[in-house]
Amino acid sequence: MNKKKVIAVVAFILVIVVIGIIVGINLARNNNENTSTVQNEASSENQAVGQVANNETNTQENQNNQEGESGKVLVVYFSHTGNTENVANFIHQAVGGDIVKLETEEQYTDNYNDLLDIAQEEKNENARPALSTKIDNIDEYDTIFLGYPIWWGDMPMAIYTFLDEYDLSGKTIAPFVTSGGSGLSGTPSNIQDGEPEANVTEGLSVRDSNSENSQSAVNSWLSEIGF
Ligand SMILES: Cc1cc2nc3c(=O)[nH]c(=O)nc-3n(C[C@H](O)[C@H](O)[C@H](O)COP(=O)(O)O)c2cc1C
Description:
Elements lengths: L2 H65 L5 E5 L5 H13 L2 E4 L10 H13 L18 E7 L7 H9 L6 E8 L7 H8 L4 E2 L3 E4 L7 H10 L3
Parallel strand pairs: 1-2, 1-3, 3-4, 4-5, 4-6
Helix pairs in contact: 2-6
Bound molecules: flavin mononucleotide (FMN).
The site of flavin mononucleotide has 21 residues, from helix 2, helix 3 and strand 4.
């Protein structure tokens, strides 16, 4: 083999080796890319699983907020001028569940002096003013927050109608009132008389002038009675 032929063969071998190296590098690079895609996919999958788990946890937490240890909660109240309603709304915001305003079939007058007379007459007669509000699913609730204004040192007679109409045996009843200063006026024991098989908690009393600012009093009371 002459010198020229030897150079040609060596050059050919060199070209083949260089091509081999280039192809090898490309194959290795592709392999790496595929591997990292698989890893990315795997980590997205992990994230997805985490998301579902988190969602499930959140849903569970929401259910706990809704029902909590005290079961399903209903806030039910009577309010003529809105003070008791303010307190009811704070309770509802804090404990969740459902909220219902009790309305009488015959609406009470907005004339204060006339209302005083009507309320006194109803109390003297031990009246049971008819309620237009009906609660079909009251059996579902474990805890009833029951709110009313103090009228003539007592519950409005519409609350007695409510206690007559519904059997709250076995439930927890948490009474809350607003008043011009009389406080609870012993009304939780009247509730207990009407619902002897219920567990009546300590009540909350709020001054009428303070009902809009009663949120912290509401929250303290709620924690005292276990909410
Ligand atoms: C007919 C009637 C009787 C009331 N009797 C009393 C009472 O005996 N003691 C008291 O402190 N406040 C009494 N008040 C004041 C209310 O209890 C108080 O303003 C209450 O916050 C009204 O609640 P509401 O806005 O939810 O209707 C009476 C109010 C009315 C209209």
